[in-house]
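User: Predict the structure for this protein chain, please.
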Amino acid sequence: MIPGSVADPKMDPQQQQAYLTYSLEIPAGVNPGGQFRLEHGGVSYMLVAPPGSTPGERMQAQLPALPQDMAAQQQQQMLQMQALQQQQQMQHMMMAQQQQQAQIMQQRMMQQQQGQQQQQGQSAQRPGWVTLQDPSSGKLFYHNTQTGEARWAQ
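Assistant: Here is the predicted structure, written as structure tokens:
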């Protein structure tokens, strides 16, 4: 008999007994509607094979929870919670990393814009000079529209 997984054990309010869903195999020779005996926790139970079932097939039955099964279920739930917490921590770390990268990119863009504005400001301070970009290299240079003179930007 193998314990199944259930979110919360069901409680019998009169006996304060926890029940778990167990997965068990229908014995050979037991047809749908047929009864078979199951020993569980020192108690004998009579179970009925569900309609449409076949011998060797698995079925589920709710039975009083055995202490070791409750402990195993609690441990499984604790492991699932820990895995979920780790997953959430990883997501938070990834989001923080993405935000940091976005801030770095934004700072770089602002620095580039400030540099271009400074270069344009330098050329605008001198009458007749304009800032242009060399199409082959992408570098900035200054061109005097009055004299035709050109100088590379520094």
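The chain is about 40% helix and 30% strand.
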